[in-house]
Design brief:
The complex is a heterodimer of chains A (225) and B (236).
Chain A: H1 3-6, H2 21-30, E1 32-36, E2 41-43, E3 51-57, E4 60-65, E5 71-77, E6 82-83, E7 93-97, E8 101-107, H3 108-117, H4 119-145, H5 148-163, E9 170-172, H6 177-184, H7 188-200, E10 204-207, E11 211-214, H8 217-224
Antiparallel strand pairs in A: 1-8, 2-7, 3-6, 3-8, 4-5, 4-7, 9-11, 10-11
Helix pairs in contact in A: 5-8, 6-7
Chain B: H1 2-5, H2 23-32, E1 34-38, E2 43-45, E3 53-59, E4 62-67, E5 73-79, E6 84-85, E7 96-99, E8 103-109, H3 110-119, H4 121-147, H5 150-165, E9 170-171, E10 178-181, H6 186-193, H7 197-209, E11 213-214, E12 220-223, H8 226-233
Antiparallel strand pairs in B: 1-8, 2-7, 3-6, 3-8, 4-5, 4-7, 9-10, 10-12, 11-12
Helix pairs in contact in B: 5-8, 6-7
Classes of the chains: A alpha+beta (225), B alpha+beta (236).
């Protein structure tokens, strides 16, 4: 097994999980490492779709831009997730790093050909795509009309699920209050006010600027709907 | 002889997932597939229940519905003929699927369908491509719901429907006005776009007064000025 793969923290959740050594070696051959600083973009809307990849560490945001200046964060990517668009020639979204990030990137067309040779990898990607689709659709009612507190509760539960909680139970939010507002279609003040209200109600406790401990997850899930 | 007649009468054979299969391969799916009719309003699958079926929509329109905490419903997707419905590899359905109009389905047991995918990699790839396209559409919907005004939402939706109606719509000349039946009621459109039924009606009246559309019947709509509609869909 290639050394980078052996040391990879995302290997068991990414496109590569469950692959035999030969398939892993084939993917490794076409991959190269790419690191992004927080704020740096992997690809821009309208760019030729040339690269995609597996996120090894960090969090990325996917932003869809309208024809005007308005834009909306339409997805977050966590370690193990697949970043980028396949089977298209032009990207429709901008993908940028919310935190420092480490990726294995592949040339899109080469990856498409490689996947055709390794059905297990393609199957995994299909399952991942189906899961992302369900996730995106689950967010829709939120954006359409849910109350601010429901939106924020849903996001907190979702982040805790995806980022995992370390032993001390404190989830480090990969997002600023501003970015949370951007995802949820809320003003930054609304996000801050509701987070404080959650704390006063004993649902969460805030630890520093980015840390949050979910004290009453069932209540949060009920709020989220 | 048999191989050339498999699914020969299917209206969507070339556009559906099955378009990736030759006659011999199609035989494997054909054995599994069952034609089923759903009357308008009938539920095809319930959210939270075990995901047991998937399949191709042959005719009609289906809606994918998410239940919200306040008991209201939000349409999170619409499916048209040749679209694939259901969730392979899922334990239970994430969304309820309801027929918006009378619909005809080609239904497969989910587990058996997954086994067919194992043997037909081209079909699996086509399903992957469709899933990614649906994901793209769902993300477009997120932008729409979160950021667009009522008039932009409705104009964009009508453009989408006009494109879907395509050749089924009626028009006198290539660039002329196109007339088609709305597959959704005002209330259903309101659910899709996350607005009230009154707002939908008010916006339609406004577009009619501006000469962009006309409403010749209860369900029929004529797009008279597509350019103006497109501008309206993207107005800031």
């Amino acid at each position: 097994m290639p050394a980078r793969c052996a040391a990879c923290a995302a290997r068991n959740t990414s496109l590569c999980s469950g692959l035999g050594d030969d398939a892993l070696a084939a993917l490794h051959t076409i991959a190269r490492r790419r690191t992004l600083r927080a704020g740096q973009a992997l690809s821009w809307t309208g760019d030729p779709a040339v690269t995609c990849g597996s996120l090894v560490s960090g969090v990325l945001k996917i932003t869809r831009a309208g024809h005007d200046k308005r834009s909306q964060i339409v997805g977050l990517l966590y370690p193990g997730d697949f970043a980028g668009e396949l089977f298209v020639t032009q990207t429709s979204d901008t993908i940028a790093a919310l935190t420092d990030a480490d990726l294995c990137v592949y040339p899109r067309e080469v990856l498409e050909r490689t996947l055709a040779c390794y059905p297990a990898a393609e199957r995994l990607l299909l399952q991942r795509a189906l899961a992302s689709l369900s996730e995106a659709r689950r967010w829709l009612p939120m954006l359409a009309r849910a109350r601010a507190e429901a939106r924020i509760a849903a996001l907190l539960v979702d982040i805790a699920r995806r980022c995992g909680e370390p032993g001390n139970g404190v989830v480090m939010l990969p997002l600023s209050r501003g970015a949370m507002g951007e995802i949820l279609g809320l003003a930054i003040e609304t996000v801050s006010r509701n987070m404080s209200a959650f704390q006063d109600a004993g649902l969460i406790s805030l630890v520093g600027l980015r840390g949050v401990r979910l004290l009453d997850r069932p209540a949060l899930a009920r709020l989220a709907g | 002889m048999l191989s050339t007649t498999i699914c020969a009468d299917c209206a969507v054979r070339d556009r559906a997932l099955c378009g990736s299969l030759d006659d011999r391969e199609l035989g494997a799916l054909n054995v599994l597939g069952q034609r089923r009719r759903a009357a308008a309003g009938q539920t095809v699958a319930w959210a939270g229940e075990e995901a047991v079926i998937c399949g191709n929509l042959l005719s009609g329109v289906l809606k994918l519905v998410a239940a919200t905490a306040d008991g209201r419903e939000q349409i999170v997707g619409l499916l048209y003929p040749a679209d694939f419905f259901g969730q392979p590899y899922a334990g239970q359905n994430d969304f309820t699927i309801v027929a918006l109009s009378d619909a005809e389905l080609c239904v497969f047991p989910r587990a058996a369908f997954e086994r067919v995918l194992d043997d037909h990699q081209r079909m699996e790839r086509l399903l992957l491509q469709r899933t990614l396209a649906s994901l793209d559409e769902a993300r477009g919907r997120m932008l729409m719901l979160a950021r667009k005004s009522a008039s932009e939402k409705l104009a964009g939706f009508l453009l989408d429907l006009a494109a879907r109606a395509g050749e089924a719509g009626c028009r006198a000349s290539l660039d002329g006005p196109v007339t088609f039946d709305l597959p959704l009621t005002r209330g259903q459109i309101a659910d899709v776009l996350g607005m009230t039924i009154e707002t939908v009606s008010r916006q339609l009246t406004k577009m009619k007064d501006l000469g962009i559309i006309s409403l010749p019947g209860a369900r029929a709509i004529t797009i008279s000025d597509r350019t103006a509609l497109a501008v309206r869909a993207e107005a800031a």
